[in-house]
Amino acid sequence: MIRIGIILGSTRPGRNGEAVARWVHEHAVKRGDAHYELVDLKDFDLPHLDEPLAAATGVYEHPHTRTWSDTIDGFDGFVFVTPEYNHSISGALKTAIDFLFAEWHDKAAGVVGYGVSGGVRAAEHLRQVLGQVRVADVQAGVELLMHADFEGFTTFKPAAHQEDMLGRLLDQVVSWSTALRPLRR
Ligand SMILES: Cc1cc2nc3c(=O)[nH]c(=O)nc-3n(C[C@H](O)[C@H](O)[C@H](O)COP(=O)(O)O)c2cc1C
Fold first, then answer.
1. 62 C-alpha vs ligand 1 centroid, how far in Å?
2. Is the CB of 147 under 6 A from ligand 1?
């Protein structure tokens, strides 16, 4: 069965991202078409990039890098749950991507963004970064608006259509992750 990691890209206390990632995971597991797992960056406690050699070498000095590497290596595809901070993704998410290289290759990903403007600018930045680490980003996306999908900007209550958008995104992530399998062997 295809394994999809749902990567929660915000780490700050009181983050809205946790409710969003749980919503994605809850809907995903009901589908029964893949193994879906929540990957919370907070649990990995990665520092600023502290590996002496570039990730492209695959040579890692630190245990935290090896743990992160083993985790990402085990997935066939991803759903990135990303906040928008100053028109981009969080520093924590960018660092987590930068720590690795081959572990990302030839996998598919969808982006669930959220923010005042639906996280669209962060999502577009993320797509650029993903291209460099050879992740194929799917067309469908989820754009959650602070004023429409979060009551009082803090309680996550997604509008009904967001579930359909998420379904489309997951369809595409599963089909592309499956199609790219021969390249990963
Ligand atoms: C440092 C910071 C910068 C932000 N910049 C933007 C922004 O440029 N555009 C936007 O739409 N929302 C922006 N926001 C609002 C966030 O998208 C919103 O607060 C969201 O809940 C952040 O995700 P989190 O709660 O999981 O940390 C910003 C929030 C923070 C904390």
1. 31
2. no
- In short, whether 10's Cβ falls inside 6 Å of ligand 1 is yes
| Total tally of structural domains belonging to the chain | 1
- CATH number of the domain residue 82 falls in: 3.40.50.360
pLDDT bucket at 15, cuts 50 / 70 / 90: very high
Q: In what side-by-side order are the strands of the sheet with 135-145? A: 35-40, 3-8, 77-83, 107-115, 135-145
Averaged over 53-76, what is the pLDDT? 98
Residue 9 CA to ligand 1 centre (angstroms): 12
Q: How far apart are CA 152 and CA 165, in angstroms?
A: 23
Ligand 1 atom, smallest distance to 119 CA: 11
Among residues 169, 135, 175, which one has the least CA distance to residue 24? Answer: 169
Q: Give the residue numbers spanning the domain of 26.
A: 3-183
Average pLDDT of the chain to the nearest whole number = 98
Cα–Cα distance list, 14 to 23, 81, 116 (Å): 16, 15, 17
Cβ atoms 137, 127 nearer than 8 A: yes
